[in-house]
Amino acid sequence: MRFIDLFRKKNTSEIAKDRLKMVLVSDRSAVNPEIMERIKNDIIQVLAKYVEIDQEGLDIKITQVDAEGEDRAKGSTVPALYANIPIKSMKQSN
Amino acid sequence: MAEVIVVTSGKGGVGKTTTTANLGTGLSKLDKKVVLVDTDIGLRNLDVVLGLENRIVYNLVDVVDGNCKISQALIKDKKTDGLYLLPAAQTRDKDAVTPDQMRELVEELRKDFDYIILDCPAGIEQGFKNAIAAADRALVVTTPEVSAVRDADRIIGLLEANEIKNIRLIVNRLNVDMVKHGNMMTAEDVVEVLSIDLIGVVPYDEKIVVSTNTGTPLAGEDTLVGQSYMNICKRIMGEDVPFLNLEAKKGFFAKIGELFKG
Q1: Best label site of B47, B90, B107, B217, fewest CB within 10 Å?
Q2: Could you give the number of structural domains in chain B?
Q3: Of the partner residues A11, A17, A27, the one whose CB lies closest to the CB of residue B153
């Protein structure tokens, strides 16, 4: 945003376009809950081979993060898988 | 070889049926043989927009159920040569037809027509699925409003998922004065947000209401709206037609008025 823009009231058409862009980012990245559940279960299964997971504290979701590289300058975002998986203990490998 | 075009939008009330009627009228004025199929079973309206409501005997569901031959259900337009309507059933619902039956019906129509235009119901449920099942290409109609553009984006995603590759955008009811005052998105704004190619812009005009009052489409008439529809028809046929300058045609008094505004 240029400095002078701070003093200019936004046109409603610009507001519409900005709001649309935001809402489409989340619409387009929306994942079907059933698929999300399957992704979650698959991740748990793989990890369970090596570590003991705290299933209560598990948090896996798809969110938006700022794009990197060229797109970053445009202020666009991309979907990313966010996972917070607390480990109770490492399984001993033999 | 006939081409099957579905006119769709997601959101209701953006002008699918009016667009379908005008493209049908325009293409037949360009000497093509066209059939318009109203796939909005239960909420048919293409018949009234075309002024053919009093001539319906059989409908799409009758054909699919085998109660009549296609030729018996087709209504020939009196005003425009080469234009036909296959009306929807009014007393049934969307589940009365399956995508397979729709494909079969369209295959039959291909033999006799240059263009088969399917007027799709609003929404993304069964009626939408039926309408897109047989389509070769799609025209997505939207107005320059947040809700309509959002729904158009969803529709484009679904069309792509159904392997319809030729998808073009029609920006309908563009209000040139509002755009000028920064209170309406431009067609370019909408194209940028949706990132699909534009095939036409139709300006907002009260004449459309008058034309639906009487059931007489405007395509081909010497007005901006009539020309916009005609240009879309030519682009459908593959012609490279430049986009109209929608601001160009101002009345004499409007121009004088502007002089005084400074």
Answers
A1: B107
A2: 1
A3: A27
What is the rounded average pLDDT for all residues in chain B? 94
Predicted pLDDT of residue B255: 58
Would the pLDDT of B128 be above 60?
yes
Q: Is the pLDDT of residue B137 over 50?
A: yes
Chain B interface includes A13 (CB < 8 A): yes
The pLDDT averaged over each successive group of 10 residues in chain A (94 residues) is 63 94 83 80 89 86 73 65 86 65
Q: How many residue pairs from chains A and B have C-beta atoms closer than 8 A?
A: 36
B31-58 burial, b for 16+ CB within 10 Å, e for fewer? ebbbbbbbbbbbebbbbebbbbbeebeb
Q: Which domain holds residue B219?
A: 3-261
Distances from the Cα of B259 to the Cα of B9, B175, B176, B202, B245, angstroms: 40, 21, 18, 27, 20
Torsion of CA A16, B179, B145, B40, to 10 degrees: -170
